[in-house]
Structure to design on (372 residues):
């Protein structure tokens, strides 16, 4: 009888991380078939199809075609459609593996556990301690029912212990995002994405933002746009804009202002390889992305994080990230420190070594064996 495990992706960070996980599973147990389930949470070509192509992911075995909606609408659709697929699946998966903290993570996890199918959570234990963030709720809920908790950084283990999880349920496996970065970095740099914008490596800032705290309040968004323009007086700023962010900027009358600002390079979202080509050769990264905090730490690039808190504190305590929140004065001071050679030197955790996928594969196979 065929043995299967359902591996869920739904949003861009999931796509990046799933490749090494699938390879790790195949290496640990060639007889275990991974069924790739795409919820359709991110569904346009750049946010989805292009990532599958560039990262060498197989075509999804199942596509739930959920699409957009409010937090509740989208999560409910994901839960309902994944449950429907699980009920009809033959053979039924031995487990559901979910990654990160998006709606697909919690929706598919809930559907699975309610049918008695165990859930495995990659990137378990991350906490920002800010329950106004939908991602924090997704993390807490998913960890509450997951049977195997695979942790990417030391704080995750501490958080799970404090919440009462057993040592037997937790495994420190490292950061699977870094597996992809280390594999793809040489090819990404060969794309010479900075040169296509007329920029030299190490001579520009890369800016990304998408979180509601930064883009949903017109006053805050205007301050962010003004800071971007001020930084562009010092060095060029590349701003590949998330579709939601662009919409907010347009509604606030700020998009055309950024388009016409000297030194600001605005554009659409990029594929993973094009973006990595830019991020890996930036002088400064300004972002509210958790994944970019991690990548910048490994790349050794100063990361000025537009958040009051982070679920990835090791990037601050050990790495290259500094939390500046929405304080644009502090942001400008940190830019001065970077350009003046006064910014801290960071390093990556030891197990961010490019082999997390292999460790995940071994832990998942051992878990399934023990459970059977």
């Amino acid at each position: 009888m065929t043995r299967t495990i359902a591996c869920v992706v739904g949003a861009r960070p999931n796509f990046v991380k799933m490749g090494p996980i699938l390879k790790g599973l195949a290496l640990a147990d060639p007889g275990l078939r991974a069924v790739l389930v795409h919820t359709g949470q991110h569904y346009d070509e750049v946010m989805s199809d292009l990532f599958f192509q560039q990262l060498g992911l197989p075509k999804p075995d199942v596509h739930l075609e959920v699409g957009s909606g409010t937090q509740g609408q989208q999560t409910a659709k994901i839960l309902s459609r994944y449950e429907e697929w699980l009920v009809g699946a033959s053979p039924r998966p031995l487990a559901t593996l979910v990654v990160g903290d998006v709606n697909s993570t919690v929706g598919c996890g809930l559907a699975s556990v309610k049918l008695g199918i165990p859930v495995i959570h990659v990137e378990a234990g991350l906490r920002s301690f800010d329950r106004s963030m939908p991602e924090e709720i997704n993390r807490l809920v998913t960890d509450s029912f997951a049977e195997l908790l695979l942790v990417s950084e030391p704080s995750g283990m501490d958080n799970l212990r404090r919440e009462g999880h057993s040592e037997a349920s937790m495994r420190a496996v490292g950061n699977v995002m870094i597996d992809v970065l280390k594999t793809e970095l040489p090819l990404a740099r060969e794309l010479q994405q900075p040169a296509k914008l007329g920029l030299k490596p190490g001579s520009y800032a890369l800016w990304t933002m998408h979180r509601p705290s930064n883009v949903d309040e017109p006053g805050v968004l205007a301050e962010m746009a003004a800071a971007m323009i001020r930084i562009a007086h010092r060095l060029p700023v590349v701003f590949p804009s998330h579709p939601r962010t662009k919409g907010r900027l347009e509604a606030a009358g700020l998009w055309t202002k950024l388009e016409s600002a000297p030194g600001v390079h605005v554009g659409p979202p990029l594929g993973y390889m094009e973006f990595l080509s830019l991020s890996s050769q930036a002088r400064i990264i300004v972002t509210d992305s958790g994944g970019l905090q991690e990548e910048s730490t490994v790349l050794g690039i100063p990361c000025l994080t537009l958040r009051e808190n982070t679920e990835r504190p090791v990037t601050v305590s050990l790495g290259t990230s500094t939390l500046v929140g929405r304080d644009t004065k502090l942001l400008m001071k940190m830019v001065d420190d970077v350009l003046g050679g006064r910014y801290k030197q960071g390093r990556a955790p030891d197990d961010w070594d490019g082999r997390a996928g292999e460790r995940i594969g071994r832990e998942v196979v051992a878990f399934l064996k023990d459970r059977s």
User: Anything to note?
Assistant: The chain has a mean pLDDT of 94.
